[in-house]
């Protein structure tokens, strides 16, 4: 028994705690494989959350413009644009009363930013867009004093800057009484 205790005591003194090189390399390889699998899923999740938040903001902006039109018994509109802020492209929105056509909407100080990773998809947006003049490039949706669309029906489509072709969120103004609805992905590309 004495020899056995002496032997285990010597083993404890001579052993070094830690991992072998093979164990360490296996752990690093496992972490690498797991991160390679998880990274694309995480990016997709983040992009979807950014688009959903932007769609929600645009939807409630349209609802607010519609509500203000009824409340004030005057025409209101939501305006959406792409602009550059500090050298980066960004989509913005604002709601305001309908101004005369020669009023420069770019000078409003009520523009609010969407997430910088969200852009407006011009190929799938059918709202009225100012073709020229001082308000060139601004999309708009107007509501009259009843909260009904004042002019063109249509949709605004938002997409991710990283994957424009696959992820879309849109808001439709689809009836003459001002019904708003949201869609995503393929339903946004239908004409």
Give an account of the 3D structure.
This protein has 191 residues and is of the alpha+beta class. The chain has a single domain, classed as minor pseudopilin epsh domain (minor pseudopilin epsh fold, 3-Layer(bab) Sandwich), CATH 3.55.40.10. 36% of the residues lie in helices and 26% in strands. It is built from 3 helices and 9 strands; from the N terminus they run H-H-E-E-E-E-E-E-E-E-E-H. It has helices at 2-14, 21-72, 186-189, and strands at residues 76-85, 88-97, 112-113, 118-120, 128-129, 139-143, 154-160, 168-173, 180-184. The protein has a 5-stranded antiparallel beta sheet. The longest helix has 52 residues, at 21-72. The chain starts with a helix and ends with a helix. The model has no long low-confidence stretch (mean pLDDT 86).
Estimated share of beta-strand residues: 25-35%
Mean pLDDT, as a whole number? 86
Radius of gyration, CA atoms, in whole angstroms? 28 Å
Q: Write down the domain tally.
A: 1
Could you please say which CATH topology applies here?
minor pseudopilin epsh fold
Assign the CATH class.
Alpha Beta
Organism: Desertifilum tharense IPPAS B-1220
Keywords: Membrane, Transmembrane, Transmembrane helix
Protein name: Prepilin-type N-terminal cleavage/methylation domain-containing protein
InterPro entries: N_methyl_site (IPR012902), Pilin-like (IPR045584)
């Amino acid at each position: 028994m004495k020899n056995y205790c002496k032997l285990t005591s010597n083993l404890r003194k001579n052993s070094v705690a830690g991992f072998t090189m093979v164990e360490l390399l296996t752990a690093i390889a496992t972490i690498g494989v797991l991160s390679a699998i998880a990274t694309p899923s995480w990016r997709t999740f983040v992009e979807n959350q950014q688009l959903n938040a932007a769609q929600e903001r645009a939807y409630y902006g349209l609802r607010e413009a519609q509500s203000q039109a009824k409340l004030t018994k005057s025409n209101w509109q939501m305006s959406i644009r792409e602009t550059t802020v500090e050298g980066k492209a960004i989509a913005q929105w604002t709601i305001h009363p309908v101004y005369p056509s020669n009023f420069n909407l770019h000078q409003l100080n009520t523009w609010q930013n969407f997430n910088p990773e969200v852009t407006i998809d011009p190929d799938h947006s059918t709202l009225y867009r100012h073709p020229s003049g001082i308000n060139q490039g601004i999309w708009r949706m107007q509501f009259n004093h009843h909260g009904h669309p004042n002019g063109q029906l249509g949709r605004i489509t938002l997409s991710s800057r990283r994957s424009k072709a696959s992820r879309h969120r849109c808001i439709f103004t689809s009836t003459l009484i001002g019904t708003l609805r949201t869609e995503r992905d393929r339903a946004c590309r239908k004409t």
